[in-house]
Amino acid sequence: MIEPSTVRFASAGVYAVSAVVLLALARRKPPELRRYCYPFVAVVALAGVGIGTWGAGIGAFSVGSGTLEAGQLLSDYVAYPFLCGFAAFVSGAGRRYVWGIVALTVAMRLGYDFAEVFEGALATAGTLGILVGYATLLGLFFGPIAGAAARQPPARELFYKKTRNLALFAFGVLIAWAMLQIAGLFDQFSAAVTLEYLDLLLRVGFAGFVFANVETLAAEADSEIGEEDGDAGRGTTATVSVSSAD
Questions:
Q1: pLDDT at 141 > cutoff 70
Q2: Nearest to 71, CA basis, from 53, 48, 46
Q3: Which helix (H) or strand (E) holds 111?
Q4: Which positions carry the signal peptide feature in this UniProt record (predicted)?
Q5: pTM, rounded to two decimals
Q6: Which residues are CB-neighbours of 189 under 8 A, at least 6 positions away?
Q7: What letter does residue 202 receive in the DSSP assignment?
Q8: Whole-angstrom distance, CA of residue 140 vs CA of residue 211
Q9: Burial class for 83, CB neighbours closer than 10 Å (0-12, 13-18, 19+)
């Protein structure tokens, strides 16, 4: 049977190639859009480094009754909060909501670690943290954050809905995987293959989706500038008219 380390090395290679491709695509975007693209390149590149070190057995340390992998932690604790936070950002919601989503996602990921390496009450608390956190995410994304998106132009609101749905679906599948993993229903090879597949879809697939739709954010910025220029122009015309009347 193929070793889990081999699966992770293969996954790290896919991340490396994907990061190079995404960087090339980002550099072809207009300068004002690159600031939205480069963080996704960094997330994918960092995942390649993290999964590569995990495959090499570097950075493993014991906690409780289990083992945590530094490479996996580095990759997940950067990628998951960033992707959910970006979905909230697209809605146009305030920073309070964006950072709240980021903190909630970190807490959910921490809950998985607790459920994985501890037993008894701590493990139960970790599992409940994952489930309650996801329910809270649903409430926020379909509640006040969706309300903020509804006040945006239709194109940006649609971008938000697609981003939100993609993030929630991907995390729902990951949570289902986590519950099966915690229950011990995967062997090492199956766990490695399914996790790497899901994480690749989440990171690289999410990045590709954003790259294909990032012009929506530029169109919104142009619209705001145009409205400001129009208001300024109307104000100038009114001033001239008053001056002429005098």
A1: yes
A2: 53
A3: helix 95-117
A4: none
A5: 0.84
A6: 1, 2, 3, 4, 7
A7: I
A8: 25
A9: buried
By CB atoms closer than 10 A (0-12, 13-18, 19+), residue 189 is: middle
Counting Cβ atoms within 10 Å, is residue 135 exposed (0-12), middle (13-18) or buried (19+)?
A: exposed
Specify the length of the chain in residues. 246
CATH of 4-217 given 3.40.50.360, 1.10.10.10, 1.20.140.10, 1.20.1070.10: 1.20.1070.10
pLDDT in tens, 117-134: 998 999 999 999 999 999
**Smallest Cα–Cα separation from 163: which of 81, 217, 90?**
90
Q: Within 10 A of 69 (CB to CB), how many other CB atoms are there?
A: 20
Least confident of 12-16, 64-68, 143-147, 164-168: 64-68
Do residues 191 and 118 lie in contact, with contact meaning Cβ atoms separated by under 8 Å?
no
CB contact set of 124 (below 8 Å; sequence gap of 6+)? 115
Q: Are 4 and 189 in contact (CB under 8 A)?
A: yes
Task: Report which DSSP code applies to 58.
Answer: -
Cα separation of 152 and 149, whole Å? 5
Decide: 161 and 149 in contact? Cβ < 8 Å. yes
- Residues with Cβ within 8 Å of 70's Cβ and at least 6 positions away in sequence, in order, are 50, 53, 54, 58, 59, 60, 61
